[in-house]
Design a protein that fits this description.
The protein has eleven helices and seven strands. It has 271 residues and is α/β, with parallel strands linked by helices.
Length: 271
């Protein structure tokens, strides 16, 4: 078997924010791992190759990688949740069936938090990906939520990240919690920063305030919450509701109700 046939191939598909992060991160980690093997003169060290394809490229380029012999092929689908099943049917199902056995084993991995597909492995990175890439050290800290079909360490031996298994039936609930805790809070942060800026409060002040919240939460957990809700300061809460818009009042009241629900649930738990 040629050296190329012994290589493990990664075919990254997509051109959005997550795909750009993965391309930057994986290409660096693969390069670093193979540089370390070269310096150590490791005999028979495994070779990894990363390919990248997105919809603006010719389909022939995609097919060429899918038909390339390799020890194993990992197709990494960094595309929208709604496109996963269609992409599988249109571009992967038939060609991966044709390569089975003769060209090396293959698996398809998606990065959706909620999607469950019988022909794909789930591998959700628990992080929020913007247009700006991070340091390689930060990527190492990202945890992955995987399904029972994916052996994370075997698939990505050059990564240092930890992974946790989650059953398929719990994935939608898990992802809903991530959206509420992450996406919803970002909406509130953005709104707060805009409103304070309108009052002349510098953006840097808002950023410091938000960093202090995260720092407290990391250190104190559920004891990090402060403010009039925790103190039971009904006078301050009433003054807030007088000056907020109707839409803001609904959000404020929803969180008051949520706080009260959590408090009630805590008191009902057996000691």
């Amino acid at each position: 078997m040629s050296k190329q046939n012994q290589a493990t191939h990664f075919l990254l598909i997509g051109n959005g924010r997550l795909a750009n992060h993965l391309k930057f991160w994986l290409s660096n980690q693969i390069s670093n791992s193979q540089s370390a093997d070269t310096r150590g003169s490791t005999s028979g060290a495994e070779e990894f190759r990363l390919f990248h394809w997105h919809r603006s490229q010719d389909l022939a380029e995609l097919h060429a990688v899918l038909e390339m012999p390799a020890a194993s092929l990992n197709v990494l689908l960094a595309i929208s949740d709604g496109s996963l099943a269609e992409f599988w049917e249109d571009h992967l199902k038939g060609r991966l069936a044709e390569r089975a056995g003769a060209l090396g084993e293959a698996q398809v991995i998606h990065f959706s938090g909620a999607t469950v597909h019988p022909e794909m492995r789930a591998c959700h990175p628990l992080a929020s990906f913007s247009s700006v890439v991070w340091s390689l050290e930060f990527y190492d800290q990202i945890g992955f939520i995987v399904d029972e079909k994916l052996d994370f360490k075997r698939t990505f031996p050059f990564l240092k990240n930890a992974s946790v298994f989650l059953p398929d039936q719990q994935r939608s609930f898990y992802h809903a919690q991530c959206v509420m805790g992450g996406n919803f809070s970002t909406l509130l942060w953005t709104h707060m920063q805009q409103q304070l800026a309108g009052l002349g409060v510098p953006t840097e002040f808002s950023h410091t305030y938000l960093r202090s919240l995260l720092d407290n939460f990391e250190k104190l957990g559920d004891r990090a919450l402060t403010g009039p809700i925790v103190r039971g300061d009904l006078t301050t809460i009433a003054s807030h509701q007088k000056v907020l818009s109707e839409h803001e009042k609904q959000i404020y009241q929803a969180f008051l109700n949520f706080w009260r629900h959590r408090q009630g649930a805590a008191h009902e738990e057996p000691q």
